[in-house]
Amino acid sequence: MRLFGRSELRTLLDRQENTAVSIYMPTQRTGDLEQGPIRLRNLLRVAEEKLLAAGLRHPDAAHLLEQGKRLIDDNLFWHHQADGLAIFMSADRFSYFRLPYRMEETVVVSPRFHVSPLLPLFANDGIFYILCLSQNKVRLIQCSRDGARELTPDVLPESMADVLQYDEFSENLQFRSGPSQGAAGKSNAMYHGHGEGKDVEKDNIVRFLREVDHGINDVLKNEQLPLVLAGVEFMRAAYREVNSYAHLLSEAVDGNPDELSPQQLQRKAWPFVEKYFVRERETAVMRFGEGSARGLTQTRLEDIVLSALDGRVAVLFVGLGIQRWGCFSPEDRHVEVHQDFQPGDEDLSDIAVVHALLTGAAVHVVPPAELPNGEEIAALLRY
Length: 383
Fold this sequence. Notes:
Elements: H1 6-14, E1 20-26, H2 35-53, H3 58-64, H4 66-70, H5 75-78, E2 84-90, E3 93-99, E4 106-110, E5 128-133, E6 138-143, E7 148-151, H6 160-177, H7 183-194, H8 197-219, E8 227-231, H9 233-242, E9 248-254, H10 262-293, E10 297-298, H11 301-309, E11 313-319, E12 325-329, E13 334-337, E14 346-347, H12 348-358, E15 362-366, E16 377-381
Parallel strand pairs: 5-8, 8-9, 11-15
Antiparallel strand pairs: 1-2, 1-4, 2-3, 5-6, 6-7, 10-16, 11-16, 12-13, 12-14
Helix pairs in contact: 1-12, 6-7, 6-8, 11-12
């Protein structure tokens, strides 16, 4: 299962769909796993009703939802869930993503995919990662404030032996296919057979951790989310020497992480991650106040949508769960807000947030009561 990142978000936004169905639902890791198929069946029924109300013929609606219906009887699928599930369907697209947090049941049929429930994945106070390091095992945990799931990205080595076996194979292959005599061949043989024990061990660990760092940057490319190390002090210190991910926290989970579950690791890491999130939010609120005095803030949704489209938004605050329906035409820069949902409407707060994210803005999803000036959405502008 792929990690949902900014590139996937951009793909969902960039695709112009005549009719797009977005389904969100809570799922269970253990326990009564029959609830998932029942819940999805009911949500697909709701989606079909909305498609028919939007003017689709019954065969076309059934075809659009066909791949979603196949998941209902896929037992293996339901035995590998996280806390939430997002499903996207259109005439030529079907994709789903497991999420490390629970959300309300939601079915949206509109011209674009509905992405508001995905915002905790990108907000500056929603998601963080734990990198578990030992010579025997490398694990990456995606966490929210009350959930966690283990990822299995192919670009991360499984262990130090995994890296060294590959390197050994490559170097042996190069040695055997190269000259039978000469300095290069002798150097390779000496390195593997007669190197100083401590120096070789240190070099091996550095090579291993550099591969881990390459993998982390591949998985978390373009992200601005905190990363926490979990491991013994020596391994953590060695990793910090080679780390190139900009958002690695100084605090860490101490001790061997191999036997700890994702949930146990999340609980150990959350106290100092929470402090990090609070500091980030307080700084953003202070910047918003300073910007307000200089005329660099907006609270009118129509203005924020256009500013986000232009890449002018530096910081965006949006109320958790808030939906504002209306029409948006980027070609003629027209934004029209509706009091209630009308056929063909889009969630304008969705559009503002996604464009802000894709142009590098910091986004804070907060309870509505915590928004600056009591607004539903508020933006600090770059200029």
